Amino acid sequence: MEQLTRRAQTANSLLCVGLDPVGENVEAQLQRVVAETAEYAAGFKPNLAFFLARPDGVALLQRLREWIPQGVPMILDGKFGDIANTAERYAAFAYDVIGADGVTVNPYMGEDAILPFARPGKAVFVLAKTSNKPVHSWQDQELVKGGTVSDFSADVVQTLTHEHPGLGLVVGATNPAALGHLRQRCPELWFLVPGVGAQGGDLAATVQAGCRQSDGLGVLINTSRALWQAAEPGAAARDLTFQINALRAERLSATI
Ligand SMILES: O=C(O)c1cc(=O)[nH]c(=O)n1[C@@H]1O[C@H](COP(=O)(O)O)[C@@H](O)[C@H]1O
């Protein structure tokens, strides 16, 4: 998370460039998107499924690692979630085979599905409230002790950060009220926030609800298809970064 904070500050960006490669000339397009968007990227997030669907997917991820400039975190979005013994193998894949700086994890199997990924210097984003619709009967389920299942996931992760400061949450951009609610519950955690672009998440509401009060950072706003399909991915990333920064400035002036 320190690397992420440093990168967000030096690039003056909260944009996460999602890499979900499909179509023709995937390798050339990946190289192009990375090269054109890198200066605006606070991070890159390749989604593992889009690589595993190709015979050379693992090798392509390894080459992608080489194309991403030093200092820009690469989060491998695998939504991993298995017992500790198996989770350790996934962590070895993500960190040692691919060289990722972080991962996404599905917490359904509990803490031991999460903690093998919490190596020093690595970022682990745990699903709390995902972007898919319609509203989740699972994540929104009220618990007997109060709060929803996604509140519970967020609370557990927040407690774990006392010992494992690399943990954060995944919170979708498609439900700004839920994003604001989890921001209040977890004021200092980093959130990975997908759902802007193809899924229609509201950028202004995302910045307003998601940014930390303390430093205006704390949200990594991901967009994948919107950049992959853009005629000029670099220009699209620049525009999005400028829009996010204008909204951050507005938000800051409103709080002064
Ligand atoms: O963990 C994720 O990244 C994720 C969580 C979530 O709640 N919703 C979500 O869309 N994602 C991922 O974020 C990316 C969104 O892609 P676009 O909708 O094309 O911007 C995909 O790789 C999704 O798998």
From TrEMBL:
* UniProt cross-references to PANTHER family, sorted A to Z: OROTIDINE 5'-PHOSPHATE DECARBOXYLASE (PTHR43375:SF1)
Catalytic activity from the UniProt record: orotidine 5'-phosphate + H(+) = UMP + CO2
What are the residue boundaries of the Orotidine 5'-phosphate decarboxylase domain, all occurrences included?
14-240
Q: Which UniProt keywords apply?
A: Decarboxylase, Lyase, Pyrimidine biosynthesis
| Pathway assigned to this chain's UniProt record | Pyrimidine metabolism; UMP biosynthesis via de novo pathway; UMP from orotate: step 2/2
Source organism per entry reads Hymenobacter edaphi
User: Source gene?
Assistant: pyrF
Keyword Lyase listed? The answer is yes
Family affiliation: Belongs to the OMP decarboxylase family. Type 2 subfamily.
SMART domains, per the entry: OMPdecase
From its record, what is one biological process in GO terms?
A: 'de novo' pyrimidine nucleobase biosynthetic process
Q: What is this protein called?
A: Orotidine-5'-phosphate decarboxylase
EC number, as in UniProt: 4.1.1.23
> Looking at its record, which EC class is this enzyme?
lyase
| Lyase in keyword set | yes
InterPro entries the record matches: Aldolase_TIM (IPR013785), OMPdecase_AS (IPR018089), OMPdecase_type-2 (IPR011995), OMPdeCOase_dom (IPR001754), RibuloseP-bd_barrel (IPR011060)
Q: Which Gene Ontology molecular function entries are recorded, alphabetically? A: orotidine-5'-phosphate decarboxylase activity
